[in-house]
Amino acid sequence: MATTLNSGFTMPIIGLGVWRMESQQVKDLILNAIKIGYRHFDCAAKYKNEEEVGEALKEAFNSGLVKREDLFITTKLWNSDHGHVVEACKDSLRKLQLDYLDLYLVHFPVPTRHTAIGKTASVLGEDGVLDIDTTISLETTWRAMEDLVSMGLVRSIGISNYGVIMVRDCLAYSKIKPAVNQIETHPYFQRDSLVKFCQKHGVCVTAHTPLGGAAANTELFGTVSCLDDQLLKGLAGKYKKTAAQIALRWGIQRKTVVIPKSSKWERLKENFQVFDFELSKEDMELIGNMDKKYRTNQPAKFWGIDIYG
To answer: Helix (H, G, I), strand (E, B), or coil: what is residue 121?
Structure first.
């Protein structure tokens, strides 16, 4: 249930993402998730709930539910803090009430105008387009990420939402290789070339939207979820599982780490129950043929620019 990163540390292959979790729900959800068996939690400064996550972790440690070393905690550097990496990391550690992070990621490969540490603004220019800072290179950002490791603040560092060429560049200029590339990937957006490139070069791929965004992205971006696809529903019947469990199992069998998000107790349990069955080679190929190259997470809606364009 864990994979070994190129940093030598292990990361559970299923985790719980806390994006869009309501602040008042976070504590109970995380404590319940730990009781179910989750040991991997994916956070970000941008999610604006690190303090609530920290309170949940504090209670889990103080009550003896788990020890710090039992958990794998990820958080992320926001775009507006590329020029303030150490300060941003320390701010996240303070909010999470931790001495170190298991994994710290560059959230997007796009430095933007700095506002204040931890404020995670996405400032738009007068033209309504994201105010991208062209004075900070991604190499400069990565050098500061590497400093976090030498300072003992972070065990592993990685990237998020990087394509093939950006991953290649990071591998070329890095002294400490990125341990992880966290990307959107699911049956409708398989990104096989990117996944295989990362894996070939020892970079673990984490799927941050392994269920295609489901209802959350439909609500936020107006996109369609792969969970409604008849093929997944048919396989769910065949294996006596849900469409979500089929999608997660597919992700695990292609050797990606999956971090589904849910604010419902039943779904938390359901998403974790994916280790008691295996998809056949033929069914893996059927799902492989579902690819629509369909991205459901669309920040251009808010930024006025398609950074993937």
So the answer is: coil
How many Å apart are CA 206 and CA 3, to the nearest integer?
Answer: 11
Q: Could you read off the pLDDT of 7-44 as tens digits, one per residue?
A: 999 999 999 999 877 777 899 999 999 999 999 999 99
Query: Is-contact 44 51, C-beta < 8 A?
Result: no
How far is Cα 205 from Cα 255, in angstroms, rounded to an integer? 8
Contacts of 64 (CB under 8 A, 6+ apart): none
Rounded-to-integer distance, Cα 189 and Cα 167, Å: 18
Collapsing DSSP to helix, strand or coil, 158 comes out as strand
**The pTM of the whole model exceeds 0.70:** yes
Report pLDDT digits (tens) over 228-286.
Answer: 999 999 999 999 999 999 999 999 999 999 999 988 889 999 999 999 999 999 999 99
Q: Which amino acid is at 108?
A: F
| 93 CB neighbour count, 10 Å cutoff | 21
At 74, give phi and psi (nearest 5°).
-110, 140
Residue 138 CA to residue 159 CA, distance in Å, equals 10
On the question of pLDDT at 213 being above 80, the answer is no
Spatial CB neighbours of 33, under 8 Å, sequence gap ≥ 6: 16, 41, 268
**Tokens coding 34:** 């730990």
Inter-axis angle of helices 23-36 and 265-272, nearest 10:
40
Q: Which amino acid is at 184?
A: E
Give the alpha-carbon dihedral of 60, 27, 30, 44, to 10 degrees.
-110
Is 47 among the catalytic positions?
yes
Catalytic residue among 47, 104, 162, 188: 47
